[in-house]
Amino acid sequence: MSTGGYRIYLLEGDHIVAVKVCDCTTDADALLKADAVLQSSIYAAVEVWNGGRPVGILSKPPEER
């Protein structure tokens, strides 16, 4: 478990178009926050990082892109 500043990168293709920073206490919390950010965005995917450690990638189904 890691704490602190997680970064949520919004992706267009393989390019980062925006970054959101969130303070979460667990990876699971950060992924839930990232999913909410993804669902309210126009972008197809997000990557979640904690420092230099990748946490996960989330993407919308093709029909929602």
Structural features, described:
This protein is α+β, with helices and mostly antiparallel strands and 65 residues long. The protein has one domain (4-64). It has one helix and four strands; from the N terminus they run ββαββ. It has one helix at residues 27-39; strands at residues 4-12, 15-24, 45-50, 53-59. The chain has a four-stranded antiparallel sheet with strand order 2-1-3-4, covered by helices on one side. The model has no long low-confidence stretch (mean pLDDT 92).
**Order of adjacent strands in the largest pleated sheet:** 2-1-3-4
What fraction strand? over 45%
Class of secondary structure makeup: alpha+beta
How much helix, percentage-wise, in residues? Answer: 10-25%
Mean pLDDT, to the nearest integer, reads: 92
- Count of discrete structural domains: 1
Number of DSSP strand runs: 4
Rg from Cα: 11 Å
Task: Provide keyphrases for this structure.
four-stranded antiparallel β-sheet; 65 residues; alpha+beta; globular
In short:
The chain has 65 residues and is an alpha+beta fold.
